[in-house]
Amino acid sequence: MEIKTVTGMDDDTLDDAELDVPQEPVARAEQQLRDYYNGSKGLIWQRQAIFFAATVLTMFYFDAYRSLACYGAVLLTEVIDFAISRRLDAHSRLDERQIRGFRRWILAATALSALSICQFVIIIALQEPSGGHFTPLFFLLSAAIFAAMNNHQIVSALALRLAIYGASFLFISLLDILREAPPMSSDHWLHFFTVLFSMYFIVDCSFVFLKNYRKNLQQMEVLREEHERTKVAYRAKSQFVSVVSHELRTPLTSIKGSLDLINTGILGSVPDQFQSVLRIAGRNAERLGDLINDILDLQKIESGEVAYKFAPMDVRDLIAEAVEANKGFADKTSITLIADIDGREGEIIRGDERRLMQVMANMISNALKFSHEGGKVTVGYSRTGDTVRIAVADQGVGIPENSRDKVFGKFTQVDSTDQRAFGGTGLGMNISKKIVEQHDGRIDYESTVGVGTTFFIDLKAWDQAKAA
Length: 468
Prior knowledge:
It contains 14 helices and seven strands. It is of the alpha+beta class. It has a five-stranded mixed beta sheet. It has a two-stranded antiparallel ribbon with strand order 1-3. Helix 4 (96-127) runs antiparallel to helix 5 (134-150) and helix 11 packs antiparallel against helix 13 (428-438).
């Protein structure tokens, strides 16, 4: 459903025609209904406490049976409001006809509620002798201010409630004047004019709360429109990246395959002056392929297109497989890669094996890249409470302080110079972080420059009985 923002509305005036359902967006009308009842439900216990306290007070000083009867009438209107609220919650979306129907119900419930409260205060006033009628007028003033603060979402309901309260104000303030016909200099007339001033104050407060609510509602609609436009732009960007990456990967695979064939000598001997150039081209084609794959992975993760297949798995098996898969790279770099799992009790976690293998590969390859030749990288695990920690420790160059943004950022590397021994896309750890977060886990590192770095992921342990 398209949501349009109402523009050009003067903050100091409210056109009654704007309040009709046919002339305002259905989405806004529905939002007003839900805001009205959400606010009402949030204050239900506060209202009940006020009603009960007022009933107890008036039972002590006035007729107890009448006070209880009025309290029962007020509670009945609360039950009606609750029933309407339940019916509204049962609908996930409302059409124009349903909105009109709910507004009629709200107006009827508002009239019953206001009349019950006014009956309560008028009965108190009738039991008092001539005077200021402080107690009933204070109760009525409190009810009116409460309505102005909390029932401004639907103008027609607020206007109806305040009109009934206003009539009761006038009746109580004129009660002694009609009884005694006092002169204009008497306190009765002073009380009457004070009541008029209070009514003006209530109406003014109502407009202030109403205008603030309408401004907030319009701002929410603008934000919703911007959010929808942002989502459309993001989807377009994601589709563009996906299409371009897929289109690049096909010719790149062909180019890399051709370069590999030439470098192996299957197609014939390569002149010495060409060999270094071809090796550089092969490495760059491999880096470009890794970049395309990482961009595709990142795009899928950010757009929520990755389907995780969670299942119980043994941490020892995960580490053993990850170490075995990276043995070849370790041998090329003359670094010893060790799986510290022998003779240790297995720990079960719940995760997506393929995605966790991707995280392990990123951590291990990083450790190998930044280790010194002849060094050692150890992959192990431990358990503390309900948390299983999988750690990859190296004896490499270490990571400088305050580098976490670079380590886990997009397209960033701690060593971004041209002299670094191994290339990279700068996306591996960012992707790993997102994958671990989808497992309700945490990825981080501890490092000392010149000594080494330990990357680790913390995952919740899976109950052995449940795994079985």
